[in-house]
Design goal:
Rossmann fold; globular
């Protein structure tokens, strides 16, 4: 397991308590620390005060336009460019697709959350899977 001083830090930006809890549990099982924000303004304030290695962002939970949140993150912490995983429903509108493409966001649809999130976080944060640790909760 990663030592406390080396643990990766992930910011969850999600307003739905059940999804926030699911993300918290998955990130903890990866051996990472996590902090949650329920909207874009709160997330930007947290990012200005604390370093994060990645951001999980629900584009629809914010009191700000998605463009404002993503641009704000990149202005405050340029190190997070390419380190934002977008959690969203199916993306079909041109504006959201353009935002994802322009800012190198990695989309994860809700329908594939459990299947994709762990693998993408592992790759993004350079976490080697532990053969003894179960990371994906049982689906019932």
């Amino acid at each position: 397991m990663t030592s406390v001083s080396q643990r990766r830090k992930v910011l969850i930006v999600e307003d739905e308590p059940s999804i926030q809890s699911l993300l918290h549990n998955l990130i903890e099982k990866l051996g990472c620390e996590n902090t949650a924000a329920t909207n874009g303004q709160q997330a930007l304030a947290m990012i200005s005060r604390k370093e994060f290695d990645a951001v999980l962002l629900d584009l629809r939970c914010s009191n700000l336009r998605p463009e404002e949140v993503v641009t704000g993150i990149h202005e405050i912490r340029p190190s997070l460019v390419g380190r934002i995983l977008v959690i969203t429903g199916e993306v079909s509108d041109a504006e959201t697709l353009d935002l994802i493409e322009r800012h190198f966001l990695l989309p994860i649809p809700y329908t594939r959350l459990l299947q994709d999130l762990v693998g993408r976080l592992r790759a993004l944060l350079h976490i080697v899977p532990s053969p003894n640790r179960r990371e994906i909760p049982n689906r019932q």
